[in-house]
Amino acid sequence: MSDDSRPSPSAAPSAGRTAAVIPAAGRGVRLGPGAPKALRALGGTPMLIHAVRAMAASRAVSLVVVVAPPDGAAEVKSLLDAHALPERTDFLVVPGGQSRQESVKLGLDALPPGHDIVLVHDAARPLVPVDTVDAVIEAVREGAPAVVPALPLADTVKQVEPAGAPGEPEPVVATPERARLRAVQTPQGFDRTTLVRAHETVTGDVTDDAGMVEQLGLTVVAVPGHEEAFKVTRPLDLVLAEAVLARRRLNDGF
Ligand code: C5P
Asked: Dihedral through CA 174, CA 180, CA 183, CA 184, nearest 10?
């Protein structure tokens, strides 16, 4: 799939070729019954294709690695072949694992040499704008080993003692100061060596990749995220995603 005769994306302002790994191997049970979440349609196009296009929209991204459901790599390959994607970007598909962490590791293992910056982007965040992707890459280029796009919270957050059974009242044990909290999105951006080391070293359960870099004792920085980079998790998120797409079509014929 790789084509060395293509011009490298020299529009990229400084060194640091960027690859994006998209974990798309989750079942998405919270979305209700049906196909794996990444393959569900949004505006008539699979969510995964939106996510792939969102990464490839950045001129700095020269390779996108999609981590497919373990038994769905062939299907994902034909899906990518069937949709128009930018010529300047290469694509690879690898089968995923049991956890998101394992899926990202399998994607990293498949990366060829020559990409110094790696983005990890949830297939479940199909609508992240390219400016957010570029802001993350830029912060890595400027020297941060790990970068997360993040937004302030609208809700106050409580820490609770989880109840034994679902629906039971849960004692509140703390209220962190809301102004210091951020909701973290993807793509998260990394110096490749740092991310590989984090995946080789950290074995505990994590919900994002930057958390693994924190466990190495390295600095992670947050840059402004975007409200359209929300994660499609529950049925209502699909309604919102369709509305965002409809608004884009109205505004710019997207
Ligand atoms: O489950 P969660 O919403 O946190 O999943 C985030 C992303 O990780 C999704 O894009 C999902 O497809 C992916 N994932 C994966 N492999 C798994 C579980 C989740 O690639 N085993």
From this structure: -120
Position 197 in a domain: yes
Q: Give pLDDT tens digits for 94-135.
A: 999 999 999 999 999 999 999 999 999 999 999 999 999 999
Could you report the per-residue pLDDT of 39-67, keeping only the tens digit for each?
999 999 999 999 999 999 999 999 999 99
The response to whether residue 67 sits with its C-beta less than 6 Å from ligand 1 reads yes
Q: Is the CB of 122 under 6 A from ligand 1?
A: yes
C-alpha separations of 104 from 35, 98, 218 in Å: 21, 11, 20
Closest ligand 1 atom, CA of 98? 21
Residue 10 lies in a domain: no
With beta carbons less than 8 A apart as the criterion, state whether 61 and 89 touch: yes
CATH number at residue 131: 3.90.550.10
Q: Domain range holding 111?
A: 17-150+183-252
Instruction: Give the atom of ligand 1 at the shortest distance from the alpha carbon of 99.
Output: 21
25 CA distance to ligand 1 middle (Å): 6
